[in-house]
């Protein structure tokens, strides 16, 4: 028996509201597969995405997960995607180095 069927059976037997398993019913999580794709360039330096399905700004997190966790006994938190700092991000142009370290460039 599939996991989804077991979840429905568990809901019926335990008389638990289905939102405790599936989250926000206004989002399509009951589809066979929910896929969201973003271009990394469009995310900027940091993006915080909802994993509890209760955010009013879905797919972005609005901080709803603590309340969701309290109501459901879950421990889910947001997915945080941030840009990795590269050596070029820390690059200091030569003219700035000359001003910062004046005695080193004679």
From TrEMBL:
<dbReference type="GO" id="GO:0010506">
    <property type="term" value="P:regulation of autophagy"/>
</dbReference>
<keyword id="KW-0411">Iron-sulfur</keyword>
<protein>
    <submittedName>
        <fullName>(raccoon dog) hypothetical protein</fullName>
    </submittedName>
</protein>
<keyword id="KW-0408">Iron</keyword>
<keyword id="KW-0472">Membrane</keyword>
<feature type="domain" description="Iron-binding zinc finger CDGSH type">
    <location>
        <begin position="33"/>
        <end position="71"/>
    </location>
</feature>
<dbReference type="InterPro" id="IPR045131">
    <property type="entry name" value="CISD1/2"/>
</dbReference>
<keyword id="KW-0496">Mitochondrion</keyword>
<dbReference type="GO" id="GO:0051537">
    <property type="term" value="F:2 iron, 2 sulfur cluster binding"/>
</dbReference>
<keyword id="KW-0001">2Fe-2S</keyword>
<dbReference type="Pfam" id="PF09360">
    <property type="entry name" value="zf-CDGSH"/>
</dbReference>
<keyword id="KW-0479">Metal-binding</keyword>
<dbReference type="GO" id="GO:0046872">
    <property type="term" value="F:metal ion binding"/>
</dbReference>
<dbReference type="InterPro" id="IPR042216">
    <property type="entry name" value="MitoNEET_CISD"/>
</dbReference>
<keyword id="KW-1000">Mitochondrion outer membrane</keyword>
<dbReference type="InterPro" id="IPR018967">
    <property type="entry name" value="FeS-contain_CDGSH-typ"/>
</dbReference>
<dbReference type="GO" id="GO:0005741">
    <property type="term" value="C:mitochondrial outer membrane"/>
</dbReference>
